[in-house]
Amino acid sequence: MAVLTPIAAAPAPGSARPLVVVDADPMSLFAALPDALAGHGPALLPVSAETADAERAFVEQAGGLEGMEVAVDSDVAVVIRTSGSTGRPKRVGLSARALVSSAQGTNEILGAGHWLLALPAHYIAGLQVLVRSLAAGTTPVVAHHLRSDAVDRHFAPAAFVAATNELAAQAIDGAQAGAPTASPARLLTALVPAQLHVLLEDAVAHPETLAALRRYAHIMIGGQRPAPGLLQAARDAGVDVVTTYGSSETAGGCVYTLADGSQRRVGDTTLAVRDGSVYVSGSVLASGYVADPERTAQTFVEHGGSRWLTTGDLGDLTKGVLTVTGRDDQTIITGGVKLDLNEVHDVLHSLPGLVEAVAVPFDDEKWGTRFAVYADGRNRVKRMTREELNSVLRERLGRHAGAAAITYFPFGLPRLSSGKVDLHSLHDTAEALAGSALAAQRPAPKDSI
């Protein structure tokens, strides 16, 4: 298998390329990627079954006009529809240069290896497993729940163990057949925190799960902030986890924190923090948002002769080390007082049974904005009442920090196929409940803000 190299030739000014919707079946997409990255044929928009109809309608009716198909700039190889966890989806146009620069930079940091795909390929984290495999000259193994013939679409520890064994055997077979690149001992995968949590819990009773986790040279963890203690629990168990910072707009992770605490940037990635806001520059940046020039102009800005991504994250950059502290859209005004929901989440995640809880804001005619707390009800711990929770929140953050309600989901928090908590649906739930169930939990006069 030929190792991919970034495309150096610049596209002709004003030239365009057709965009096609393709099913995100991992191995079909893996087979189609080399041509797309080489500039042959149309750009690819991989989709899940749930989004296929919407994306076909988007592509086939540019601007809502029948017969006018969406085209993209000729440098765009793949378009990724974001999860839309907090609002309407975005369609991120990624060039071959951005994708391959990210993949090769990752392989340089972690070492070229054999990849297990455990995340959907229509999200950037899954797609990049395919591109990294192409860049390393290896073929990925697809986790059982993502295969086209899968009966059970849920991520399961036993299936993870089986896929890991398959990956290890394939790596050895490839080495014996004279595969050109990675060591057969270097197994790699990317997971979201929820998957790692499930595997570590299962490993307590099933040593084969822990053994499978330990077979990986590195396990990349991204998509959302891990709960406190999760990474340390993994490392204490002998599992090498690497946390990633990045997004679809940076072609995946662009800053990695390794198990030893050191931090590495992918390729020529440059970071800056201005007025507390995090900006990213470098070859990994997306070309923009397809058919959305206004949002593109707001998100990708020119400064000092370079192009920068406005990430929307808050953080600190000290001695070259980036620390992300939250989102800049998480401040609400409740009862005339500002409240940072990032701080609320820090408190929630320090409490028993609330390590993955989320605080979701909603409009309130009296207070302006309030928030509801949603938590995973599967945890075998004593559930906190709203009064108990608010006692802690107000003690640490002030009297204005009380939650309007706390709801435990008996089957776990709703999640997108990427593994992220579905904040958009929870926001709709909070808005719908604001006039009924939440009303019953509104503060008594003694609890008023």
What is the compact description of this entry?
With 449 residues, the protein is α/β, with parallel strands linked by helices. Helix content is 31%, strand content 28%.
Amount of helix: 25-40%
Radius of gyration: 23 Å
Tally of separate helices:
13
Distance between the termini: 64 Å
Strand order of the largest sheet: 7-6-8-9-10-11-12
| Domain tally | 2
Task: Give a quick set of tags describing it.
alpha/beta, Rossmann fold, GMP Synthetase, Chain A, domain 3, 2 domains, seven-stranded mixed beta sheet, 28% strand, disordered C terminus
How would you portray this structure in words?
Helix 5 crosses helix 7 and helix 10 (341-348) crosses helix 11 (386-397). The protein folds into 2 domains: 16-324, ANL, N-terminal domain (Rossmann fold, 3-Layer(aba) Sandwich), CATH 3.40.50.12780; 331-447, GMP Synthetase, Chain A, domain 3 (2-Layer Sandwich). The strands form 6 sheets. A 7-stranded mixed sheet has the order 7-6-8-9-10-11-12, sandwiched between helices. Strands 13, 14, 16, 17 and 18 form a 5-stranded antiparallel sheet that branches. With 449 residues, the chain is α/β, with parallel strands linked by helices. It has 13 helices and 23 strands.
